[in-house]
Amino acid sequence: MQDPTTHSDAGVGRVEVKETTCYMCACRCGIRVHLRDGQVRYIEGNPNHPLNHGVICAKGSSGIMKQYSPARLTRPLRRKPGAERGSSQFEECSWEDAFTLLSQRLERIRATDPKQFALFTGRDQMQALTGLFAKQFGTPNYAAHGGFCSVNMAAGMIYTIGGSFWEFGGPDLDKAKLFVMIGTAEDHHSNPLKVAIAEFKRRGGRFISINPIRTGYSAIADEWVPIKPGTDGALLLAIIRELISLGLYDRDFLIQCSNAAELVVDDPALADHGLFRRVDTDVDPECIDPENKLWWDRNNGAVLTHTPGADPLLMGRYTLDDGTPVKPGFQLLKERVEECTAEWAEGITGIPAATIRRLAHEMGVTARDEKIELPIPWTDAWDNEHASVTGNPVAFHAMRGLAAHSNGFQTTRALAILMSILGTIDRPGGFRHKAPYPRSIPPCPKPPVGPECVKPNTPLDGMPLGWPAGPKDLFVDAQGEAVRLDKAFSWEYPLAVHGLMHNVITNAWRGDPYPIDTLLLFMANMAWNSTMNTVEVRRMLTDKGADGEYKIPFLVVCDTFSSETVAFADLVLPDTSYLERHDCLSMLDRPISEFDGPVDSVRIPVLPPLGECKPFQEVLIELASRLKFPAFVHPDGSRKYRDYPDFIVNYETSPGSGIGFLAGWRGKDGDKFLKGEPNPQQWERYAEHGCFYHHELPRSYQYNRNWNQGYLHWSRVHAMTRHSDPILIHIYSEVLQRFRLAAQGKLPGRRPPERLAQRVETYFDPLPFYYEPLEHGLTDTQRYPLNALTQRPMAMYHSWDSQNAWLRQIHSHNYLFVNPQVGAANGFGDGDWIWVESAHGKVRCMCRFSESVEPGTVWTWNAIGKAAGAWGLGKRADESRKGFLLNHLINEELPAHASGEHCSNADPVTGQAAWFDVRVRVDKAGAEEPKETSPQFTPMPLLPGQERRRGRWQAYVAGLFRK
Amino acid sequence: MTQMALVIDLNVCVGCHACVTSCKQWNTSGWAGPLVDQNPYDADPTGTFFNRVQTFEVGTFPDTETVHFPKSCLHCEEPPCVPVCPTGASYKRADNGIVLVDYDKCIGCRYCSWACPYGAREFDEKQRVMKKCTLCIDRISDQTLPERERRPACVMACPTSARLFGDVHDPDSEVSIAIRERGGYQLLPECGTQPANHYLPRRKTRMYIHPEELTRVDNPLLKEEFIGDEGDETLDDVAW
Lengths: 963, 240
What we know:
The complex is a heterodimer. In chain A, 23% of the residues lie in helices and 16% in strands. Chain A is of the alpha/beta class. In chain A, a hairpin with a 3-residue loop joins strand 31 and strand 32. Chain B has a single domain (4-200), classed as Alpha-Beta Plaits (2-Layer Sandwich), CATH 3.30.70.20. Chain B has helices spanning 18-28, 111-115, 137-140, 153-157, 174-181, 235-238, and strands at residues 4-9, 37-38, 46-47, 51-58, 65-72, 90-92, 99-101, 122-124, 129-131, 163-167, 198-200. Chain B has six helices and eleven strands. Chains A and B meet through strand 3, helix 5, helix 10, helix 22 and strand 35 of A and helix 1, strand 2, strand 3, strand 5 and helix 3 of B. Strand 35 (953-957) of chain A pairs antiparallel with strand 2 (37-38) of chain B.
């Protein structure tokens, strides 16, 4: 061999280095792709990128094996005439055939009943375009996967503090002293969180993980606090109670920055019971949360909030001059948590009461005694000048562990309120917002208000997804029933701000509320790991009516790989890989902003598309042009945008608005940002700058943004928000109370249908409360004593990379992890084959004993199991023979109960899929049973255009597979 | 003499496997490649990785520690794999202490993997030669790379910066300081191999709160006025 010290990679072949943005998961790191003779040699993190600063994860480092995967689709495919759906009998067709077929069908639907077309996408970082497409089409039946991912986290926090974790905010570990992570193993904000936790620990920060399972980040926590799944709300309320009872809350912060001191009418006989008493004063009628409310001043009684010099009280009960009894919101919170003692929470969570109290003390004392003061002068929204920015360095992070339960919205509210009473919102060392957040509570965009908003050949009147502020914003008909297929924004799930993708197929199949004609799925594995009740959903996709037609008549699937869902398509559209496409992570959507200011980014192709692959965005632009959507054609009907890159540069949200998909280098000369006329050179500027645009705010605008006058003004001027009014934290949620009053028949206007009145009244509580997950109350928990969960492994993102030769060597199959006590109690040993059974179904799998899981919980890695033959894998691949899917055990609907026969297995406020509510039992499998997972499915064959199996050996050298 | 090595900080390693696949992608197309895979899309996939992460548990519930333990060739100062090699294919470089295999000389006898107490060698079943971590010698010695990039791929990738790289014989190097100040240790020191790679142990940060610290004279509760509502009954109403 050559002496390696004389070897230089640069000397081998033609070397190029191109920058783009990773898409091996949703994290969106900057990457540098090294090419040798036009083939991928090496992918490394971009050291200048604000998100990952040069690091890269296991997935990002395996992008090569995704690019060259034999699971790639390369040709548009059509189900063969006469072939049964689901049998993967396809024939190749041309793009022109596909577009003709699709546009003719969609044209007919759009001209008659646009609701008959439904577009649901697995990924949600493309919603600016997909949402625009749905709105222009005129269908309300659109959403991304947020409803089955983490909408409780988003909605619970945005309806409380005007921002939420992940894309829109996060823990400021740079300055925190105590970090509490609840219910998270790995997370979407994957590399930045790893970087931040490691630096935090090196600085000596204390890291507590509250989780039923100790893996991933929890492994390096200073303390692991095991908790029973779905009980976090009880823990959080007990901590809040302890903090209030000891006075370990930030009183000044609560008064100035939240509605804690605002007076709530407290007389059930009055029409405005539970609402803030509002008085006539000079307020902007457009303002979402006007300051026409009252404080109880120590010396002068009722005064307008933020009256200069006032000294309001947070506790007590008072009587207004007109005799109305009132209480500050904080007093109501105090009363709410009165019963929530640590001992009460111990019985629910399994965490010792002494530990709960100690957690509260650590949070409260750190917040109070470790105060941060940064020498940054700033001015608040009430003209008070501050010489410094201060902060209480307790940071939190939470995600699906809280969210994916049917009580997750109120649990998340409890978390946001805990973070608020500690005084940590948008302050150093606590929670920090990321642009475009904070936004009004709730944000301005609203869903359509009724069936009349859906008209043939007309864009939808309203946004497909929005933020209801009261019953008037619901999307219901005259009977109060749903207009959307997934029943989002109906009285069943009034705040379903991300939709309910998990109920789309079932509802369409049943024709409830109506049947549809065409379902277009993009990058959503709804016949496998993205769905609940997998076996039945697969059956629904092939079920026919009495007329012999499929109940869902036409199914279009756009994907890069031969997923399980592709098998069920009538038309398959081959998407490109992330290295072959333009993309844009837009401020109109979910940008990659940092705490210090807005950041957006793009992908720019590094390689030409494989075969006839076409980026999904190009498909949408083409269809929108052919269907002559108003935003996509000139008045004479001619096409406005050549292609997606052209659209990105030239589209404005309305003519002359200056707002487009990309915020950087706007204006003819590229000297404007956020707002400015289109710049024909915009892509070139992004390419020159590592594919991202980062606007760093002045330091005085980087904190306290809910009530930072300078920031709020800046944000209004740059069109990030519609209002520049301060965004006060909703400790007490008047928005929720409005729904409750409507359910009680006390609010004029819309009322829920009778079957749902009790449900809305119960769960729309203006203060957080703990309730047992809905399914537990409808399940025999004696027979099914265990909670079952999934976690995402760091080296594998959902199902995306089972086709990846390197990553699948790390996770080719999964086990059910159980505490050894569970094995002992049920008579099986480590590694045995077992049955896991819920009230809904059963799967056979292998178990592994683990001391890192609390004994009431069993768990497995998410989406490692695959259907035989899918994802370019051999029929006997581990994924299908030894891997399994927990989804088979989880129903998409609750058993029939008082609120209805077919309520989603979801949070009654947001419709968030309650994945983690499932209860199971475990039993040893019989010795005579086959040693393979159950259920099994007919293997999926190779599809036309897919590469043939590669054989036993694979030796990759920069694009070549050497023998 | 220079002895390059990795120092791996178990206090921050979250087991993400970034080091595993970044190593694979750099090396499969590099000087020490390819890193061959067997059954890449079928049952029992396996292949050559120069670096792997093992995960194990310590203790019983609820006092459990989950440890992620990245492991690769430790570049021993007294490497037992070298003297057993019948062809001289296994060797230790004098200039930087890195232990390497010359595939052209390797006859695939596997004596070296039997001699290695750490199981750090990777036999390529296709090419029938022994392979292993090279500390990315083709990166760290490539003068055409910017200095920042003259580091092993795993070190560049690691999101938690759990992998320090440097000369453990230089007392002022980052790695030597870390070993000295943070309890760096070697694996199986009793084997006398003197592995150059070291590990940094877990450390716990705890918080101690004295009961008297819980309340302060400026307790916000003192700012509230706890008076009963005018309508409430008091002793004045019922007692004489």
